[in-house]
Amino acid sequence: MDEMLAAIPVPAMAIDRQERIVASNGEARTLIGQGLEGRNYVTILRQPGLIDTIEAVLRDRQPRMSHYLSNDGVEDTNYQVTVRVVPGLQTIVLCFLDVTHLEQAGQMRRDFVANVSHELRTPLTALMGFIETLRGPAREDAAARDRFLDIMEGEAGRMNRLVGDLLSLSRVEQDQRVRPKDTVNLTDILSSVLRTLGPMAKEAGVTVEQEFPEAPVKLVGDQDQLMQVFTNLVENALKYGASGKKLTVKMTVMERDPALRAAGVRVQVIDYGPGIDDVHLPRLTERFYRADSHRSRALGGTGLGLAIVKHIINRHRGRLRVESELGQGAEFTVTLPLRQIGG
Ligand SMILES: Nc1ncnc2c1ncn2[C@@H]1O[C@H](COP(=O)(O)OP(=O)(O)OP(=O)(O)O)[C@@H](O)[C@H]1O
Ligand SMILES: [Mg+2]
Questions:
Q1: pLDDT digits (tens, 9 = 90+) for 217-227
Q2: Three-class SS of residue 303?
Q3: Is 271 in the pocket of ligand 1 (CB under 6 A)?
Q4: How far is CA 260 from CA 174, 213, 309, 313, 322, in A?
Q5: Which ligand has its closest atom nearest to the C-alpha of 324?
Q6: Domain 107-175 maps to which CATH number in 3.30.70.1110, 3.40.50.920, 3.30.870.10, 1.10.287.130?
Q7: Ligand nearest the Cα atom of residue 269
């Protein structure tokens, strides 16, 4: 029995008619503890749901499923436990399947749907409210009508951006594993992003400094996606860091980048605004995460920008690093490999 259980790749143990553990594999001993053999399962497993299930299977010999929760002091691990009789032997076998990731994925999906609904509901509620007002009290009031239509346009625009960002996120996730294959000119991409956002910088009163190497930098990448990355980073710097009055975009070619352990190009987008508190840094690239949600919403942000950035950089096998100190501005560093490594 011990040898049979040793061949099972997940924690497994056998319990006899006398309610004693008669065999276990190494995985089970790592999970539950040493010295299991000969002990009564009730004193070892100690979780009522599982104990009831085993009792029932011992009674009527019908296979069942149960759960086991373990905690290593840091995090919970959820196991689905199958409890089945070995026909012919007076023994039942328990197998513990780790379903933590499945449950986390399910939770993430539920959170995502809840977030999307919430983000859409706010502008929708506003739109419905204004439609109501335009039908009723403001029917004959031309000035109010114009004002309301402006707000409605803004709200509809927000929903439009949100749906656009969601689509682009799902597209990026879809081709995450497909390596880009075109050669693109990063110098041109950055110049074009800065040209497009020039008017926004001007309006925000921000001077843009650019430090690029003399020779154009070329790499294998996806033109549109890289435009999207730097557009969002520069846009963020202008939206959230405008009070610093200055924005630096710096590109450096590294013969050997320590993070990539290969030749790379590093692009830094540096602003001198209010910065981002430490507590937010690790979560910044999560979908819908905003450091200052009030401000971000007021500025029309969807909170999806950096999530998209992160996915695109992953697809390019690059790195994203964010450094910031409150009051000292923020620095977003993108490192991309100059030559494609691997497939
Ligand atoms: N340069 C910056 N300075 C201060 N805070 C920043 C900066 N860049 C990003 N943030 C914070 O990070 C959050 C997430 O940024 P992200 O680009 O993902 O979303 P967004 O700008 O709110 O929306 P979107 O980019 O979809 O329009 C922002 O809401 C903002 O709070
Ligand atoms: Mg953004």
A1: 999 999 999 99
A2: coil
A3: yes
A4: 24, 20, 18, 12, 16
A5: 1
A6: 1.10.287.130
A7: 1
